[in-house]
Design a protein that fits this description.
Elements lengths: L1 E4 L9 E4 L9 E10 L2 H8 L15 E9 L11 E4 L12 H4 L16 E5 L3 E3 L6 H4 L2 H15 L7 E5 L3 H12 L3 E6 L2 H9 L4 E4 L6 H9 L3 E6 L6 H6 L1 E9 L12 H5 L3 E4 L5 H13 L6 E5 L4 H10 L5 E5 L2
Parallel strand pairs: 8-9, 8-11, 9-10, 11-12, 12-13, 14-15
Antiparallel strand pairs: 1-2, 3-4, 3-6, 3-15, 4-5, 5-7
Helix pairs in contact: 4-5
The structure holds NADP nicotinamide-adenine-dinucleotide phosphate.
């Protein structure tokens, strides 16, 4: 089969190799992968900033969708032809995460090779069914970005209809957060650095917006929009945005700390404790959360927002497109 391998870090060093087709062992399924989607983590993994000591050669990318091609002995849950997505952390089925479970995340080293390849085997418990209304391209966007937004809003945030949510920028996690929050009857204030993207945020239902390049005090804009401050922030920015995200939050509100797009330096804790804000780190989510999210996606026939679809041999271009930051929503690579 064809697979992309990282042998040296750098987008241009990523190369297509031939690997033997994997075979499903006891209780494993062989999946013919049809599409994969990019997360910011994949860009960091390939460029070497995620873990410079990562074991290589390794297949990158964590998120995919495909069709079961064959099943191993003892597989009771699946048959050939079933449409599935591998879960992000292959052994995190339910409950809290742990160091051990986190280490089973796909696509960050040779031990748990990723999905930028034609076939992969997974334990029968480590895949979930694709909602019927979604294509492989759409389903490939769910395992990391969508689940992270779901966990932030509904598991950590316990979002209620009428709550106010602040989303930052227009990457994969933020666009899913906007869609889920609107689906649940919340009000959403969104930021972006681009006027054109702000127009698209409004089309998706953002109730209030600010261009963070033109309006540096976007935290104030969020407070002006919803009075006392927002109930939840989907914080993907990190050091450069966290102080303003905290300012924009109401007393006893919730900040889901997800990303570090602007860096990971320290911050002043005073406002956080004076406002009794709940800062909650989020790490993707469990299989149980993934299945609950898929029920909601199905019930609401929610469709992921796909920015662009690249062919398999254009995976490097897809990564460069992500690096440019010009995307809105998810970038997908077709397989096969
Ligand atoms: N903790 C977890 O489990 C988890 C899971 C998934 C992702 N993450 C992290 O979450 C972050 C987002 O991931 P992603 O995959 O959604 O990324 P992405 O798709 O690459 O999102 C990039 C977007 O972020 C926006 N952005 C960049 N700088 C910004 C700033 N200063 N202020 C506001 N927005 C800014 C830009 O939107 P505009 O062009 O509209 O300004 C840009 O297009 C990354 O740090 C990623 O590593 C963490």
């Amino acid at each position: 089969m064809k697979a992309y391998e990282i042998e040296e870090f750098g987008i241009d060093k990523l190369r297509i190799v031939e690997r033997p087709n994997p075979k499903p062992a006891d209780k494993e399924v062989l999946v013919s992968l049809r599409a994969t989607s990019l997360n910011y983590r994949d860009f960091m993994v390939v460029s070497g900033s995620y873990n410079p000591r990562m074991k290589v050669p390794a297949i990158p990318f964590s998120d995919a969708a495909g069709e079961i091609a064959a099943v191993g002995e003892g597989v009771t849950k699946w048959k050939a032809g079933d449409r599935v997505m591998p879960i992000f952390a292959q052994r995190w089925y339910e409950g809290d995460s742990s160091e051990e479970k986190r280490r089973t995340s796909l696509g960050a080293g040779a031990q748990w090779d990723g999905v930028l390849c034609e076939f992969a085997v997974f334990d029968q418990e480590s895949v979930v069914r694709i909602p019927d209304h979604l294509s492989f391209e759409e389903a490939a966007t769910l395992p990391c970005a969508a689940l992270t937004a779901w966990n932030a809003l509904f598991v950590s945030g316990k979002l209620k209809p009428g709550d106010a949510v602040l989303t930052l920028g227009t990457g994969g996690v933020s666009i899913f957060a906007l869609q889920f929050a609107k689906m649940a009857g919340a009000t959403v204030f969104s930021t972006s650095g681009s006027e054109e993207k702000i127009g698209r945020l409004k089309d998706l239902g953002s109730d209030g917006t600010a261009n963070y390049r033109e309006r540096e005090d976007w935290d104030r804009a969020a407070i002006e929009f919803c009075g006392e401050g927002v109930d939840h922030v989907v914080e993907v920015g990190g050091a450069g945005t966290l102080p303003k995200s905290i300012n924009a939050t109401r007393i006893a509100g919730h900040v889901a700390m997800i990303g570090a797009l602007t860096g990971a330096a320290g911050f002043n804790p005073v406002t956080a404790f004076m406002k009794a804000i709940r800062l909650q780190g989020i790490f993707v989510g469990s299989k149980r959360m993934f299945e609950e999210m898929n029920k909601a996606i199905t019930a609401n026939t929610l469709r992921p927002v796909i920015d662009s679809v690249f062919e398999f041999d254009q995976a490097r271009d897809a990564l460069k497109h992500m690096e440019s930051g010009s995307h809105f929503g998810k970038i997908v690579v077709k397989i096969g």
